[in-house]
Amino acid sequence: MSFDRLIEGIKRTKNPTVAGLDPKLDFIPAYIKEEAYAQYGKTLEGAAEALYRFNVGLIDALCDIVPAVKPQAAYYEMYGWEGVRVLKRTIEYAKSKGMFVITDGKRNDIGTTMEAYAKAHLGVTEVEGEPLEVFGGDALTVNAYLGTDGVKPVLNVCRDSDKGLFVLVKTSNPSSGELQDRKLDDGMTIYQTMGRMCEQWGAELPGKYGYSGVGAVVGATYPAQLGELRKALPHTFFLVPGYGAQGGGAQDVAPAFDENGLGAIINSSRGIMCAWKKEEGLDPKDYAQAARREAIRMRDEITALVPVRN
Amino acid sequence: MSFDRLIEGIKRTKNPTVAGLDPKLDFIPAYIKEEAYAQYGKTLEGAAEALYRFNVGLIDALCDIVPAVKPQAAYYEMYGWEGVRVLKRTIEYAKSKGMFVITDGKRNDIGTTMEAYAKAHLGVTEVEGEPLEVFGGDALTVNAYLGTDGVKPVLNVCRDSDKGLFVLVKTSNPSSGELQDRKLDDGMTIYQTMGRMCEQWGAELPGKYGYSGVGAVVGATYPAQLGELRKALPHTFFLVPGYGAQGGGAQDVAPAFDENGLGAIINSSRGIMCAWKKEEGLDPKDYAQAARREAIRMRDEITALVPVRN
User: Fold this and answer.
1) Which of A135, A179, A187 sits opposite B147 (nearest CB)?
2) How far apart are CA A307 and CA A303, in angstroms?
3) Is A97 a catalytic residue?
């Protein structure tokens, strides 16, 4: 019902980062794709299988040093139900290796429809009274443009199943300000207002390390807002995208953390997944070891500035 | 690249309504579920198969009088990849019967990630240069909290594949005002600002009936805002949820239409799907005929107030 399990993973690994699993076909070494196509054809199923094998290699190489993965639902949906099946298999595999799984789906709706998303991604679906786990993630990203009606159903599922959610507050993209930075008539911006709602919603899911089960997505590309929100939202854990490929560095994400080096987890997707393409002369079969080296570099760069304290 | 095909369906059937396909197990007659469980077990696959058979009955009973269906992605995702496969099969079946399909996914993300959602739901995914249709919907609902970066990739796919999108503007739920009704420092509300962005984005996808390929979701439960937005957004086609079960009636949705009875499509989900539960003494095997009777009643109620003109 909070991010206690995630925080314990961060303390154990002394690493406040999460590896994004956004496996585009372009990111996957040719030998993996060829093996998958040979078995399943150049089809959605073949492509999805390549995604899965790529993910398994990454998870194996990262699971002892990185506490969490963040599969991005879009890159699985893109390959149809075959891809969505691989999302489930990836989540299962990451959990079997002890990783915390943040499903990045940015889902949103109201009432029983939002409850359906929450059951799908975090809870259980009942079939004739039998509770069945569906995707089994540990946390889900959520877009709260629809207000409390779109968040309450997720809170209820999180309370029952010890899960969490991350609400989009200030996203990392260049146009995030078009709406999110606009000032309301009380002088607060939209992202500040959304952040304040996270604190309110989070009061229902308190955690033992001071952070609730309602986190916020705040981009590394806006370091001033990161620091401002860290102060304004003392119970809200941050998921921080935008490090690496999108331009954010360790200096930029440092303001996201509290004095114990907690309070935030920094995501890198392309930086880790595509590390193998940047090492000259590397055998593509060693892609996962290149990912591990980049994950260690990222961890060390961030914790040199902001060490994780126990 | 616009809603021309949808508008032509509305003109042909003289019916500006869409049947929501949100098939919860509770809504499905027992005989359908028992047949599906007998074949596939009381599993996610069995439940998903029951959803599909229920949908097929509804589509068969509605396809000559209702121009469009709106499957709600959450109710399929809830049954895992097996449910997502049935979303695809449902879309295929509805299209084979000449219906326009609005996939209600409220998807949102940025850049290539949003492009992945657009390809999944509206376009094609390339596997080794081979373009493969994935879900094949005609339109997708989108949440634009992330700004233009989250909409542009969908516009591009819509332009290439003659599809459309509906952006959440003023949703039908009680708490929609928490954020959407807040006034910005220029005096406009957030939903008005979002509506104005729809007009701007829509300029890239003009249609021959005056409506662009960028529509807006505006709830039947807020008739004053519906009328206000109809005047303010002359090129934006409205998808209007909240009729029936959520409390909106024909009087409430009338302001959504232009002087030709166009410019909006009104959704009913539970009202149509569960009509069979309200007719006393009805054989559940006649559920689809009950749905048809309710769809006709709804059409007649709305077009009595606002006739569709050719």
Assistant:
1) A179
2) 4
3) no
